[in-house]
Write a structure and sequence with these properties.
10 helices; 8-stranded mixed sheet; SH3 type barrels; 5-stranded antiparallel sheet; Rossmann fold; 23% helix; 442 residues; alpha/beta; 23 strands
Amino acid sequence: MYSKNISELLAKINANYGDFIKIEKSGRHYEGILMPPPEIGDSDAIIIKLKNGYNIGVSYDASMAVSLIEKSKWKKKETKVKLNFDKKKSDVALISTGGTITSKVDYETGGVSSLMKAEELISLVPEIVEWANLEIVTPFSRMSESISPKDWQQLAKATFKELKKRDAIIITHGTDTLHYTAAALSFMIRNLNKPIILTAAQRSSDRGSTDAALNLLCSSIAASKLDIAEVSICMHANISDDFCYLLRGTKVRKMHSSARNAFRPINTLPIAEVWPDGKINILSDYKKSSDLEAKLDNKYEEKVALVKIYPGINSDVLDYYIDRGYKGLILEAFGLGHVPTETREKKHSLYNSIKMAIERGIFVGFAAQTLYGSLNPYVYSSGRKMLDLGVVYLKDMLPEVALVKLGWVLAHSKNIEETKALMLKNIAGEFNDKITAEQFLY
């Protein structure tokens, strides 16, 4: 609830959430839609949504004046989009898990709500029904920063169930951990024989700059036209509404906090360009659809950790995980795969902690902090020391992918040698045979 001061101001003008109001303070004025106060934060500031789609808060003081410009005229309408089944189109499950792409402002309350009905989600871009027969499935609804391995397991199970009866799967998801989930599904569904395409939005559907519509449309086109049997991500290729990239689920990363083209391929090219008119330009090889029988394999060991190495790191950071029985560690190492060993102070050397972890049967793998390029333990003596201890250098595998893969591998391996072998086996395109200059900062 708003503070007593704010509530009294709004009550005087009979303003409700969704009404258009004007705030005057310190010689400036602001106009926008009255929003509810945040659950956490300052309740002594009026929140309004400006015409450009952004929210601002105006702090209360005694000189503040608030006036009502217009009562909300918004009325909830039932969508008119029809979902008639057409035998000529692909049968696609649209699995909704939450996130910005399935959110918009409800102008009746002023709050943000999820679009849980298929008709509402599809109403964002009705053109997608021209490409596929869609049926929505909602295993859970959660913002992606709160997604956990248990959610990956549940999503893999729901996706596998739909794979048995559909031609393709589209999954809507929040952007923050989209690439983690894409990696998890890449390992948890084996012998994949159909497209699984994850998509998202950086900006909610009520904003004029939303990327939801193009991302959904291009995902639908790729799902219905491309004979791919991989987990992929389909998102804006540039800041305009031109086309989308289809990106391999184990070679992609969110590289910008808010830009619409935040998702980029790392150490590889996009699989394809997907255009809203239905055109698809293939840019790299991919696994083709087949008659293989897909298998659900969603076992996962959660006692794994991803640790970023930094100058001055204390060895007790690693000791924390060792003492608490973690079964595997992925270290984001410097350069070609280096960590502090010959330091001024003993506490900043990680040599003994890594040695102890390996002696206790804990898997220790290095991934590149640089993201681009591949690790090589043979260039410097510090790398060779780590190799001699038993550290596994994970080539050009992304740190997040390495973490997800390790949790999956440890749920299947019987001993450390089997774990090492599986971590170095290219299961879902997580390694590159060759890295070219063209792939850098694509």
